[in-house]
Amino acid sequence: MKKIIALILAMCLMLCVFAGCGKSEVEYYDEAETAEAETAETAEPAAEAAEPAEDAEPAVSIGQGGTGFETYPADMVVATINGTEATWMEYYYWLRYYTQYVNQFAGQYGIVLTDWEGHDLSGDNTNAQVVLMNAQANMIQDHVIQTETAKLGVTLSEDDLAEISDIFEQNADTVTGDGDGTATEDEIAVFEEYLKQELFVDRAFFDQFNTTALLSQLGFEATYGANGDNYSDEDTMTFAEDSGLMGAKHILLTTVDTTTMEPLSDEEIAEKRATAEDILAQLQAVQDDPAALEALFDELTAEYTEDTGYASYPDGYVFGEGEMVQEFEDGVKALEVGQLSDIVESSYGYHIILRIPIDPDAVIGTDANGNDVSLRYAAASQQFSALLSAWVDEADVVWSDGFETPDLAAIFG
Fold it and tell me: Roughly how many angstroms between the first and final C-alpha of the chain, as a whole number?
């Protein structure tokens, strides 16, 4: 399965509408405040929510009741986006998704949303506006990806179309089928009914959802190359600097049991300290020769380090603020590139740090599928996200009467 680059929801979000709701911010689109397609407003803390009376009836969240999907015909055109028609089915999907999303999010802070006109989610926008901005941004983005990638010459091959069909059959087998690896005609029919009854969409919408994701990926590759390979070193390093990224290798001698974080015995800690001092002395003896220092550092790291991440990151770490234990981060910040630290003590133990230059192709993490993510790929992805945002901002959107600001209370209750 190919990686999806675009900032659109993965298929798992379609099948689990609360996926990813553990975030501390509600993301929404706001043309007036930013050129980005998504920004954030922090929710009020739970402590500031009104306490219900002990004998009060339980409050119901927004989005219960109303006439829902049946408010309009599924194929009613609610807008044209860059000349393509957007229907009530897709609009309702995103409206419903974000109605459920914001209720789930607010609930994590002890807030029950009962008023569409309230400002529980944003000081500047009502609860209804937060839902509308998110839903509209996603629907618009889906359409502009289709039109703008076509301008880039992106087309789907027979293999791509077969992959879209396979995704549907895989879901029919695993979501409503027996999961044996093959979707039967009966399982496909059950899944189609599931989409209709539970998500209010049909197979065409499901397939288009995945087609858009694939077009986005292919658009990324057409613009920046596979894995962002065509993104320049200069632009990658600008991204690293703007992101506050740092590079470092370290030798760690732990002073705690890393599974329980319980301290080792005083005797064991003293032995670790003595070993760290011996290692540091060896490194300091060659620190005026950068090549010799790094070669010896690598040799001693392989022999002594107790860092559990060493096997995955033998060439060192590239990280930003707040990603590492604070003492380690502060130790790296205090060094120039190529400089060796003294012994830095953290809650994990004794670190000896060598700050290293950042390679544009350094691995800085993994994606949701466990694949390595390079700095170049991350930089190119951010730039493509900005391009998607610009496409959304510049889209020619013509709303049918009443659909730009629909009455969510009448639709959802």
Answer: 40
